[in-house]
TrEMBL record:
Transmembrane segments: 30-48, 116-134, 140-161, 173-191, 203-224, 282-300, 320-339, 346-368, 374-396, 408-429
InterPro entries reported for this sequence: Battenin_disease_Cln3, Battenin_disease_Cln3_subgr, MFS_trans_sf
Family, per entry: Belongs to the battenin family.
Membrane topology of the entry: Multi-pass membrane protein
Domain of life: Eukaryota
Keyword Membrane: yes
Region (Disordered): 1-20, 248-272
Main localization category: other
Compartments it resides in: Late endosome; Lysosome membrane
Key words, A-Z: Endosome, Glycoprotein, Lipoprotein, Lysosome, Membrane, Methylation, Phosphoprotein, Prenylation, Transmembrane, Transmembrane helix, Transport
Pfam families, per the entry: CLN3
Name by which UniProt lists this protein: Battenin
Gene Ontology BP terms: amino acid transport; endocytosis; establishment of localization in cell; lysosome organization; membrane organization; negative regulation of apoptotic process; regulation of intracellular pH; regulation of protein metabolic process
Length: 438
């Protein structure tokens, strides 16, 4: 009798259990995909100061020009109050973002012809190559090439995984955003921590080769993809939406609004006219996202290196690393906040970030901030604004786009942050040159 009772399990309960397990796997999988996808990109920015210092030291062994930097802590006199690398860390930023920007501008129109499985394999290969190239680099061009490979991996991965979310419940957007924030903290903290305890930047980068492997495991073994997903074979873009996929979207809408808003069910690929219409509608999201990222990366790669306090227990390189780490902590917190708070006024976040730029620009020029702790607080706040802008932008794009347009819209809108970052890198060069010439 007891045996029979244990066998006769209610099919509805079994279905609920399977569905709960699949949702857990998908949420965890997208969190890890966000973490692994952005990891190399973050590490390259955290290592920017060390990459440039390494090449500067290598060049100094073959030539003996007058040094462009001074040891301020040692009390050496100099006409400049700034401890500057001869090349701004914006050089690493541009190498880290320009390939991403090119991919995001071109790929949304053609990327649907490449199934997701091949995209993920390519991204993992590019990330592994970037770590190896930078760790074994013997010249500046090798370091920059390694950063470019990291950029290609992150750019293609971001637009691919954002597009991939439309095949799952909208809950995975929060997981993806939180994972990308986690990449910032994990990448910056591990790099700062491992180098702080005595490991060389080269060995640290080689240890991080485990991350591309984790990316492959997360996608191929953890996610529970629906049958509609074009994994290895090309399928028509925007084919007829399956009942399973549509139900996921409807359920998300019902939970948030109490009603469902099904998308358009027409089949066939989007026409150029339809894509142009979608892009025009995205401008109200792309411009605020680009502005907030321009502001925060102008701070990160144009001003952070110049916010140096000589008479504290942290060296210049250590101060720079921990600025990057605290920024990423702020990003993690705000990108994980989607389940608690949703912010529709994206322009407000952009304007607040611009205020941060002006404040720190004046601080670099007039040195009125008393110690690095004040900078730590501002940088943490900067990260909170940037992460909130990112995750809320893509949440509302997913929520307000028609189902037929959603996959293309998510990929196309990803150009916003990369455009802002690229412009910030270009603007950082003359600013760095100006302050270092004082």
């Amino acid at each position: 009798m007891e045996q029979a009772a244990s066998v006769n399990v209610d099919p509805a309960q079994r279905a609920d259990s399977d569905g709960s397990c699949s949702k857990w796997r998908d949420w965890t999988g997208f969190w890890l995909l966000g973490l692994c996808n952005n990891f190399a990109y973050v590490v390259m920015l955290s290592a920017a100061h060390d990459i440039l210092k390494q090449q500067e030291s290598a060049n100094a062994t073959s030539a003996t020009p007058a040094p462009l930097t001074v040891d301020v802590q040692a009390g050496n006199s100099s006409s400049s109050p700034y401890d500057c690398n001869p090349v701004s860390t914006a050089a690493v930023l541009l190498a880290d973002i320009l390939p991403t920007l090119v991919i995001k501008l071109a790929a949304p129109c053609v990327i649907h012809k490449l199934p997701y499985g091949f995209r993920v394999l390519f991204c993992a290969l590019m990330a592994a190559t970037s770590f190896l190239l930078v760790s074994f680099s013997s010249a500046m061009w090798m370091s920059i090439l390694g950063v470019v490979f990291a950029s290609v991996s992150a750019g293609l991965g971001e637009l691919s995984f954002l597009s991939l979310t439309v095949y799952f419940s909208r809950d995975v957007l929060g997981a993806w955003g939180s994972g990308t924030g986690g990449a910032g903290v994990a990448g910056a903290f591990l790099y700062s921590g491992l180098t702080q305890v005595g490991l060389s930047p080269q060995v640290t980068l080689q240890i991080m080769l485990v991350v591309p492997v984790a990316l492959l495991i997360s996608y191929f073994f953890l996610l529970a993809p629906p049958p509609t997903l074009p994994q290895w074979r090309e399928k028509q873009y925007a084919a007829v939406v399956s009942e399973e996929r549509q139900q996921l979207m409807d359920d998300s809408e019902e939970e948030e609004q109490g009603e469902s808003t099904p998308g358009t069910r027409s089949s066939g690929p989007l026409t150029p006219k339809e894509k142009l219409h979608v892009i025009r509608g995205l401008m109200r999201f792309v411009f605020p996202l680009a502005l907030v990222y321009f502001a925060e990366y102008f701070i990160n790669q144009g001003l952070m290196e110049l916010l140096y306090f000589p008479n504290v227990f942290l060296s210049h390189a250590e101060q720079y690393r921990w600025y990057q780490t605290l920024y990423q902590v702020g990003v993690l917190v705000s990108r994980s906040s989607l389940c608690c708070i949703k912010i529709r006024k994206l322009w407000a976040l952009s304007l607040l970030q611009v205020v941060n730029v002006l404040l720190l620009l004046l601080a670099v020029r007039f040195h009125f901030l008393p110690n690095p702790w004040a900078v730590f607080a501002i940088i943490l706040y900067e990260g909170l604004l940037g992460g909130a802008a990112y995750v809320n932008t893509f949440y509302f794009i997913s929520k307000e786009s028609e189902d037929r347009h959603r996959e293309f819209a998510m990929a196309a809108a990803s150009v916003g942050d990369s455009l802002g970052i690229a412009l910030a890198g270009l603007a950082a060069f003359p600013v760095h040159r100006y302050f270092c010439s004082l």
